[in-house]
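Complex 326.
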Amino acid sequence: MTPTVRPRRLRSTPAMRRLVAETRLHPSELILPVFVREGIDEPKEIGSMPGVRQHTIESLRRVVVGAAEAGVGGVMLFGVPAMRDAQGSSADDPDGILNAATRVVAAEVGDALVVQTDLCLDEFTDHGHCGVLRETADTDEVDNDATLERYRSMALAQAEAGSALLGLSGMMDGQVAAVREALDAAGRTGTAILAYSAKYASAFYGPFREAVDSQLSGDRRSYQQDPANRREGVREAELDIAEGADIIMVKPAMSYLDVLSDVSGVSPVPVWAYQVSGEAAMIEAAAANGWIDRRGAIQESLLGIKRAGADAVLSYFAVEVAEWIR
Ligand code: PBG
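Predicted structure with PBG bound:
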């Protein structure tokens, strides 16, 4: 005899639904990406990212204090320098905008949340690529091993400035091992590595280009992953873990939930996901037109990312959501 199944019993009251919910959002599992720009006196709006600004160091200080008060787990800093060159020289300059801002942020909220820094050259190079280019070749060819030297130097500068977690987003081969080795050699064994393991060459990074005034003219397909590939995401994650990554990332999030699910199923280290600029922009644009409920869509998108296996999520909505759910 087949028993009569009545799943609606578990949907009948708010108290029951709350008790049996499998996934929930918590402020400590949200990380706010922030932008700091050199040479401006006032925060500057980013047209394609409503509510997100390029900050001065002083306005950034206020934002991270607010983030700490809202209980978010961390902030991820991106720097926008005034001057760029082929080597991305200001990236490892202790007085460069990212390192200077990190010093201020770490002093202000370093105990309340995890201060993280983007470790990549694209914001600092005049060609906008994530690494330095091979001198003889055409502009799209990144010199992997020369870039690793630059990353090692950036890692030491960021650690020295007070970053607790280095976000390796450049997708160079061997970047995790190179940075780990540089940190260990300098006695910086307490600085952790977040490896962007499965980072896809995505159209959803569009608004970010405006956020960092990117100089890129081509694309990143020679070093970022092909959106067609699922197994490759797991392979990249395994390599990064073997090289010493403390946390790994899948990025973007919403179009890559299958990869996120696969990676989180096999990873012995925490797995994070990045709800990137274009993903936030889609929600903002639809909501601004009255086509979707903004708050509902934001919460559902983050819940979906967590349900797929993310232990924490980088989101431009982090502080707002933390305030809603607190
Ligand atoms: C590289 C980096 C990018 C993003 C984060 N780190 C740009 C890229 O890889 O093209 C995109 C984040 C977003 O779109 O919100 N430094």
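Strands lie at 30-37, 44-45, 53-55, 74-80, 114-119, 165-168, 192-199, 247-251, 271-275, 312-315.
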